[in-house]
Amino acid sequence: MAALKAWFDRRGWADLIVGLPYLWLVLFFLLPFLIVVAMSVATKTPTAPPFSFGGEHPWINFDGYARIFGDALYVRAFLISLGNAALATVFCLLIGYPMALALTRVSRSWRNILLMLVILPFWTSFLLRVYAWMGLMGKSSWFNTGLTDLWNWVVPIDWAVKSIPMMHSNFAVILVMVYTYLPFMILPLYASLERLDPTLDEAALDLGSRPWQVFLDVTLPQSIPGIIAGGLLVFIPAAGELVIPTLVGDAASPMIGRVISDQFSQARDWPMASSVAVALLAIMVIPTMAYNHYQARAEGLK
Amino acid sequence: MNRRPVFLLTVLGFGFAFFYVPILSMIVYSFNASRLATVWGGFSTKWYMSLWSNTQVIDALILSLKIALVSASIATILGTMAAIALVRMGKFRGRTLFSGLTTAPLIMPEVITGVSSLIFFLLLAQWIGWPSQRGFTTITLAHITFSMVFVTTIVQARLLQFDRTIEEAAMDLGSKPWQVLFDITLPVISPAILSGWLLAFTISLDDVVITSFTTGPGSTTLPLLIWSKVKLGVTPDINALATLMVVTVGLCVVIAGIVMNRAEARRLADERLAFRANG
Amino acid sequence: MADDAFLRIEGVSKTFGSFQAVRDVSLSVSRGEIFALLGGSGCGKTTLLRMLAGFEKPSTGRIYLDGKDMAGVPPWERPVHMMFQSYALFPHMTVEANIAYGLKHEAISKTDRAARVREMLDLVQLTPFAARKPHQISGGQRQRVALARALARQPKLLLLDEPLAALDKKLREHTQFELMSIQERTGVTFIVVTHDQEEAMTLADRIAVMDRGEVRQVGSPTEIYEFPTNRFVASFIGSITSFEAEVRGRTDGLLRLHIPDFGTEVLARDVPSVGEGQKVTLALRPEKIVISKLPAPGTNAVEGVVKDLAYFGKDSLYRITLPSGALVQAHAVNARRGDEGARVADWDDRVWLSFDPASAIVLEA
């Protein structure tokens, strides 16, 4: 007992602090992930569980990866996912940047209230925020009928429509993604814009720049770290999104998250689902590595 | 700048409209008497009444709260330990892998985490006979794993700006390093730990994807229940449920904001007091 | 080294990577002394202090406290407490809890503990503030909490890292004397790290002047100021004007030096270790030089022209050019009240500078 206490005092406490979370993450995160990687080169069988290594099948089977490049379904799913995520990121930036900049220009008391309003959606259910848009986009909703009336009033009579087909389209997916991920863009942008020294703006104005030139020459270059951080925070979850395309997306052009889920649960093709998952991760690792590299370089410069 | 940034404020206004119009619309329609969710049929609170007697919803809520409570608490303990390990323990063997493991779940798409957890639990059941069925335990294990790294991120940021001399002072006054941890470090960073717990709690309470993969028969959490109903379309009783949830969370956040503002005001008053004592 | 030394530092060095922060330092401190480590930033004084507290391990050398080797004794087992420069008060505890913190590791009864805390609060006059948190009290009060907290466990040795640096000037002077009186009452041995020479001179019984990791001289404030043993110490403490000199011989127990800048010989207090023909440095403190418009009697005199003067009120600093072009700094007390005419000398005046042989500092290096 005394020996145990001495061990705890000396280094045991430190070993526990490192060891417990380490063990947990290895067991419940790394191990399942490695299983998926191994599964991605297994062969699908009609047994339970539905996979096999070796036996009458090859030990390592790259069919899954071959199908990702060979089968138009997968190529299309990847392209749609990346395209939707990229568009959502760009729209988030276009809306989020002026909002973040505006937040730095309002008075201090207003700013705290408005920031809280930006953060509030963070704490409310993601699913319900998607659901709220389903209510707006439906054919008979006040929002859709209003838009339809507006459209019919503006365009020639030949182009008139009964309602605007918003639900179950890529447009709906991108719109809801922008809606749900916008706070992820605004907050890092606000953080990087708020740190800027306002006297720099005044110095540039004093030196003869017009306000929009000040923005291009002074503000924008200094906020690039915020843009990159916000962009990744939107792009990465958007590319692997499952809930939004399932609820408001077009079932005929599924995103990659949907493909993984369907392959796994409906087709019971574990190896194929795993191959697609590994490929998706590989695609996501690239921007993350680029970001880390950029950040390391920026820190090296300081 | 003296000129009002008209363009920026306009975008800000539209942005907030974009944020809140869908939610307000949902709240309004939760009082709709019509069964058709999108056509106004007069004011009514009947959907709230029917919610109250809906045992399915109540059971799902209780299960969700149980899972969130347990998983957030364990995730906070493990996540805080991981943050201390990363910031305070210097170089230890396998540190690079460890730091990778504490960030990877942040960028891992939920669907992949879900699939890999399910495969893991299925294979585990086959190899060692546990878990014999999926439900509360498997959901909680999965939630702990992916929410603990959020706690780590928050606590790590706080520890990095921690004044280490107060830890040295405690050591100098006779405390062993682990006593310093309990007496000084943890109390001082407790606001960050609390934020971590709240975030882990919310993440768990909100999760659909990972839960849908790790759940089993008979274990329906509130988000899973909503998910299964919402897939079929918009209904007024979901509007009512959603309104209750949004209003509850909103009130909590607003109250937290007021409490924090009060604390800030008190701190400023204290500093004025100290300044006067100085004179 | 004396055997009764309470703290003995023997040949201690500390290297961080390729940087040598402390080089071969040996010191001994007696019981009940206030000992100052004085030096500029980066001179190694804080590293030495941290080795005494146990936060750093010496790369080589040994530290003995009260005859006990401190190697391998962790900070929490050393009877040594530290007052941190930032005070390092625990922000989540009251003043009282801060002071009581160290006592919880002591095997004493609750009533004794409470009594000790009361005694400490009384010692630093903070009894009315016992229930406040650190952010609710002023900087000077925080400093006293830090002192009381470090003294509560009755350490054998108290380390003070720049104890007055965070206080404003007025408070600093008052606190200096308070520190000295508390040290007298408690009898604890103090080691004070400071960059401020005035602080070291007022507080300390003895001072070790450090430079680039080395101890350059150890002595009482008077010894350090009046009898510096090298140019670094002579110029670090106070100001000096130094001249190249050559030893010509000895007369009546005084050293005869030839100063090329004066063009004459001067007499200075003898330094037994120097021999005839040796090149040495003659250092003169400004206040030891007498300025007069009349030719001064005796040998130690030289003529020059006032180039510059700065009026400080109670005294004035003169910069005087010698015929060789060398500049000499000299202080003169403004003993008489009056306008410019009351001064000892004015711009471009021809003056005679003289000094007592006993006041001349002869340095070998």
Describe this structure in words.
Chain A is built from 13 helices and 2 strands. Chain A has helices at 2-39, 63-70, 72-105, 108-123, 126-137, 142-154, 170-194, 198-206, 211-222, 224-239, 243-248, 256-265, 270-301; strands at residues 43-44, 51-52. Chain A has a two-stranded antiparallel ribbon. By secondary structure, chain B is mainly alpha-helical. Chain B has a domain at 54-240: Orthogonal Bundle (MetI-like fold), CATH 1.10.3720.10. Chain C has 2 domains: 7-235, P-loop containing nucleotide triphosphate hydrolases (Rossmann fold); 239-363, Nucleic acid-binding proteins (OB fold (Dihydrolipoamide Acetyltransferase, E2P), Beta Barrel), CATH 2.40.50. Chain C has helices at 45-53, 95-100, 110-123, 139-152, 169-186, 197-203, 221-226, 231-236; strands at residues 7-16, 19-29, 34-38, 60-65, 68-69, 80-83, 157-161, 189-194, 206-211, 214-219, 241-251, 254-259, 264-269, 279-284, 290-292, 301-311, 315-321, 327-333, 350-354, 361-363. In chain C, helix 3 (110-123) crosses helix 4.
